[in-house]
Amino acid sequence: MGKRVDQSSMGVAPPRLGARVSSSRPRRIQREGDVTLAANLAKPLIISCAITGSVTTRRDHPSLPITPSQIATSAIEAAEVGAACVHIHVREDDGTPSCRGELYHEVFERIRSRSDVLICATTGSGAGRFDESGRLAALAHAPDLASFDAGSMNFGERVFENSPAFLRELARQITSRGIVPEIECFDVGQIGNAVRLESEGLLPGPTGKWWFQFCLGVAGGAPPTPSVLLTMRSHLPPNAEWSVLAIGRAQLPMSLIAMVEGGHIRTGMEDNVYYRRGELAASNAQFVQRLVDLAGELDRPVATPREARELLGA
Ligand code: ZN
């Protein structure tokens, strides 16, 4: 008597396994984590597919796309199973990385004739082969996005040079054409290199939306671990969209973290040629299909190209 009793616990039987909980029960206040997780899983997932790159060779994978026709066909196949964006490098017929405008033009035209997938052009160095003007060659052919490598670093046995002066010029060249920069960060300090250009009006780009790609697992860059990925995310400017690519066997595990953390994912033969240990991937589309299937298991929607354009302002 006189003792206070928790009314909410009186006369309420625990739900049977599999039974739906009655909506008349007092609802618990959702914890912050539940809300964040629900928001992460509700966001359309942008899957990018990096078709060829400039480092992978036919020795690594016998059916690596090389010619404009092969690159475009592989990109279209990736888009057909769920990629919203394709990341494009071009090669000469013998497989050598190239920056010839005609090759970019042919690949982009072939893709655009059959797909509305977003096209992201590389502005990389072709594994050290291109000078600065060569790196800008693809921009004249109106890609939707272009990579922006946000700092210098050792990259395996070479130095990947992106001086502050070059980054300013690259930002000008990309954004003045209305192209969205995909800011590739190989380490946490490179995020700051990009953000500092905001005060000069050079980034984030035409629509004011930031789009970052974390590049993990390159020798000389940040390693592909969950703590590194989440630390990098914590240094982003507010409302930035982010994606992760990871090299080799780290590709899938990092993809899964991005999937539940509200990020986006890049896959494809530029970054990895093995579907699983000891088994080469059948195609770029096979990598994309696996991510689509996994997103389906989590009920995370996969972004269409139209949704990706909206998210990125492309
Ligand atoms: Zn690339």
Describe the structure.
The chain has 314 residues and is α/β, with parallel strands linked by helices. It has a single domain, classed as TIM Barrel (Alpha-Beta Barrel). Helix content is 33%, strand content 17%. It has an eight-stranded parallel barrel with strand order 1-2-5-6-9-10-11-12, surrounded by eight helices. The chain has a two-stranded antiparallel sheet with strand order 3-4. The protein has a two-stranded antiparallel ribbon with strand order 7-8. α6 links the parallel β9 (180-185) and β10. α2 runs parallel beside α3 and α2 (68-81) packs parallel to α9. The model is unreliable at 5-10 (pLDDT under 50). Residues 50, 53, 87, 89, 122, 124, 270 line the site of zinc ion.
Task: Compose a concise summary of this entry.
This protein has 10 helices and 14 strands.
User: How confident is the prediction overall: mean pLDDT?
Assistant: 92
Q: Helical residue percent?
A: 25-40%
Q: How many helical elements?
A: 10
* Cα-based radius of gyration, to the nearest Å: 22 Å
CATH superfamily placement: Aldolase class I
Listing every helix as H and every strand as E from the N terminus to the C terminus, the arrangement reads HEHEEEHEHEEEHEHEHEHEEEHH
Total domains, how many?
1
Describe the sheet with the most strands.
8 strands, parallel, barrel
Q: Strand pairing plus helix content: what structural class?
A: alpha/beta
- The oligomerization state is single chain
CATH architecture descriptor name: Alpha-Beta Barrel
Using the coordinates above, name the CATH class.
Alpha Beta
Low-confidence runs of at least 5 consecutive residues: 5-10
Note the overall shape.
globular
Cα-to-Cα separation, first versus last residue: 68 Å
| Spatial strand order of the main sheet | 1-2-5-6-9-10-11-12
